[in-house]
Fold these 2 entries.
Entry 1:
Amino acid sequence: MATQRLFFAISLPDDMQQQLVRWRADTFPAEAGTPVVAANLHLTLAFLGEVAPETSQRLQTLASRIVQPGFDLDLDDAGHWPRPGVVWLGCQRAPRGLLQLASLLRAQAARHGCYQSPQPFHPHITLLRQAIQPVALPPRGFHWRFRVSTFSLFASDYARGRTRYRALASWPLTSQDPHALLSAP
Ligand code: 2AM
């Protein structure tokens, strides 16, 4: 079977995707960049690149064994990376649970041959792409909070000029070992 372009990520609740799309339209002029469609708004935990089916399967097994509680994510920061042309939404203080989850997934990915950038992990949701000109960022004061209680493995499909992200599997974030629950008498 062919390789797939994969990444682990946190998806946003539908209502938050809609709120962010409205806020983005009010905040950035049309010429600032190309908006990411609502359904594609997500926060990447670990980018895997092109992955063979066996490696994908192994990483999914490892992901299913992760035992850690959910956490609240506060989206209260925005920035612009001119070189990749990305305008993003992020958090002033990343929750420890988020950093722990990303670090574990990235370490497992690296051990299975998926290149991991040496750049420190900067959690973000890409709002605009092709944003290569200077962009006026909104003043601090915006804030959304949501509870993260699952994470997913996504495949990135490109067809007819469009990128679509497809969740292949999702796992709960819970402090109880799901295997222990299943095997309890
Ligand atoms: P971006 O939004 O900052 O571009 C699917 O492409 C997801 O994986 C996106 O969130 C994207 O981040 C991220 N991604 C794509 N290529 C990547 C790379 N080479 N290194 C790290 N993350 C990457």
Entry 2:
Amino acid sequence: MIEFKNLHKSFGKLTVLDGLDLSIKKGGIFAILGPNGSGKTTLIKCLLGMVIPNKGEINFNNESVLKKWEYRNNLNYLPQIANFPPNLTVIELINMVKNLRPKESKESKLIELFGLEDFLNKKLGNLSGGTKQKVNIVLTFMFDSELIILDEPTTGLDPIALIHLKELIQQEKANGKTILITTHIMSVVDELADEIVFLLDGKIYFKGSIEALKKQTNNNNLEHAIANLI
Ligand code: ADP
């Protein structure tokens, strides 16, 4: 479904992606891991067309994304930091996003699931970080799409919201969707990920199942296995 070929990206003298090759098949949950600054967000932004690589190719369903933009109608993206307009209310933002796509949307169910009913008329600028993240999640999951990209989706969530988020991700997988997720929470990776993609020095250092990682590093604890990888 997604292919990165020989991807290079530098910011000034800093090389972030250094000839990265990666293929991701359709269906399943892929955890994109790596130390801070290893280029996870840059890789995602290249796929979204928000960062233009210096060199390389990116294909989505066998078509180059660098030349066409329509593919973006078929993916949902949860940014690591949601820059919401502070003076809009929650419901005004949800309705604005809803009007952008002529697709069926399921925001009501999600508002209920994350207990946002009492916040709908509050201004986004007055919400706590965790409540903003719940809004971020509603906006990401309200439309159906083939690919779902989640950059640190658990930030600020309370334990109940975290359970709901994990269930949502699992439901999407059961419906045949492809989910890319970056997170520092290893229990989320352990519970959800079908494959781990580990970035280091601008390249893919490891790609495979959790079992394969544990076997390769001779360690049954995921956190330790990842620490042993490098
Ligand atoms: P990660 O998501 O793995 O923490 P990022 O992709 O956010 O890493 O960043 C990788 C490196 O690139 C970091 O050193 C970061 O400071 C740098 N970087 C990211 N975006 C920019 C930018 N727009 N301009 C300059 N440097 C950037």
